[in-house]
What we know:
Blueprint: E1 25-33, E2 37-38, E3 45-53, E4 60-71, E5 78-79, E6 83-91, E7 102-103, E8 114-115, E9 121-122, E10 125-127, E11 130-131, E12 143-151, E13 160-169, E14 177-179, E15 193-200
Amino acid sequence: MALTKITNKSISGALVSTNMPTGSVLQTVFQQDETGLTLNGATATRFMNLPITTKAANSTFLVRFSAAIYGIQDNTTQHDKDICAAIGYKIGTASTTATDHTAITTYDPTRERITFANSEHRAFYSHDAYAHGNAYGKFIPLVELYNEDTFAPSQAAGTVINVAVFFQQDDSGATYYNIGDSVSGEADSGKVSTLTVMEIKA
Length: 202
């Protein structure tokens, strides 16, 4: 790994972003959720939102997200209900509406996907039906999600950017999925969900 030589013989005050080389991590913000989300209806639902105020202009942002999906319907019955997850960002005031956000994810699966700004359809994760094999299946995650992605908007230093994670199922009449919490609620059992955003100097 290449080393960066600091030519100044003395450094006084704070190490500001303008003096840092390209690729330097300027800041990291983190959020965790211990409550969970029950999907109800077929509309994209915001699960987590994390604001970051930029320290430099035109930075690149690395996003990391982790969560678990639980199936919460009858234990041994098959359920042909799709689900997807996607991440987007919005400059300025936060919003719970996916179409107010620019998609970060570039994957566009046809099974199930979320509509973002400019009618872009995206999801970093999408799956079809599920079934529990025994009476205790609903307490075990169907899948544990982990996703990393980057985006690089054109923005000034001091800009507030909201990074949001959305989930969507394809049924408007019942609840089939929990995010983070098992059927007995996350106070009893589940998985802590996390969202991390890192600003990297351009």
